[in-house]
Specification:
Elements (H helix, E strand, L loop, with lengths): L2 H30 L2 H28 L10 H26 L4 H8 L2 H11 L2 E2 L2 H18 L8 H23 L5 H23 L4 H6 L1 H23 L4 H8 L1 H15 L11 H20 L4 E2 L1
Antiparallel strand pairs: 1-2
Length: 306
């Protein structure tokens, strides 16, 4: 595996790890704040965290000769706005979907972005090798064993989470399109403020945010804002730069495995009240997902444009 690919895999796995741990913080944060408010504040914090670095990177790029500049201002703004809208809507559909379905169904349906991403890629002239498809199908099987603990039926909540999965796939493809044209930190910073603005407007209209809600839920909010948003989404953009978006989606899907483990330990130490123990079937699902990711990485498959 090339050094650049190793770096991308590391960044994307670290992204999945941070997101997986954020499962506990998001669950706790939802106790104190309504969805629009929580989503707006976490992405606003994420934007603030990386704003100084984004300004520095932009300043350094402007000092270069025009022919050597990485940041295309027009493409950066367009990409940031599109990424922010996709990120905001996906997060909100997921949050409201989870409120109207079970956690098991929501986890499995959200994981459908593993399959939806390469399907969307086909419409953009991307191709997948057989190894990628085998790994993706294996990941879906693993997700099913990990998440589904009841009979499957499609409710309103299930449909909302399915839309969320499609929107996360769109987000991945937008990043794949724009990240080679600009600096990843600048692109990430713009997307956070766009997501915060859109959800913030909705929060003022539909939620009733208060300082007491924010102060009570400050610790989960800080983790989700600084680590899950500011750090992890930036790692995603940097890691996806010139990297196979389908394999990137599979690596980031390890978030579900890590969140299951984090949830178990959070329950054991008292952060979560509901039992998060893993059954034998769920452990097998975790193992299948891990094997699928390793299989694809060993084959080092890549999507190629026509």
């Amino acid at each position: 595996m090339k050094n650049n690919n190793v770096k991308s895999v590391f960044f994307l796995f670290l992204t999945a790890f941070i997101w997986g741990i954020a499962f506990v913080s998001q669950t706790m944060g939802g106790v104190y704040m309504q969805p629009f408010t929580f989503v707006s504040l976490r992405y606003f914090l994420g934007g603030l965290v990386i704003l100084p670095l984004a300004i520095l990177n932009f300043y350094k790029d402007r000092k270069k000769p025009p022919e050597n500049r990485l940041i295309n201002i027009r493409q950066t703004i367009l990409g940031g706005v599109l990424c922010g809208i996709a990120l905001c809507t996906a997060s909100l559909f997921q949050q409201y979907g989870i409120m109207n379905t079970t956690v098991g169904k929501a986890g499995f349906i959200t994981a459908m972005y593993i399959i939806i991403t390469p399907i969307f890629g086909l419409f953009l002239g991307k191709k997948c090798s057989p190894a990628v498809w085998i790994g993706a199908v294996a990941s879906i099987i693993g997700m099913y064993l990990l998440c589904i603990t009841e009979s499957f039926s499609l409710s309103l909540g299930d449909l909302l989470v399915l839309i969320c999965a499609a929107l996360f796939s769109v987000h991945i493809m937008i990043i794949d399109r724009f990240s080679p044209l600009t600096d990843g930190v600048v692109l990430s910073c713009i997307q956070f403020f766009v997501a915060a603005f859109v959800s913030g407007i909705l929060a003022l209209v539909f939620d009733k945010p208060s300082f007491s809600q924010i102060s009570d839920g400050i610790f989960p909010l800080l983790y989700c804002g600084i680590m899950s948003s500011g750090v992890a989404y930036t790692l995603q953009i940097v890691g996806q730069r010139n990297f196979n978006p389908t394999i990137a989606a599979m690596i980031m899907s390890l978030e579900s495995v890590i969140s299951a483990i984090a949830g178990y330990f959070a329950f054991k130490i008292g952060f979560l009240q509901e039992n998060q123990s893993l059954t034998i079937t769920q452990i097998i699902g975790c193992a299948i997902i891990l094997c699928a990711v390793i299989f694809v990485q060993q084959r080092n498959s890549a999507i190629k444009s026509d």
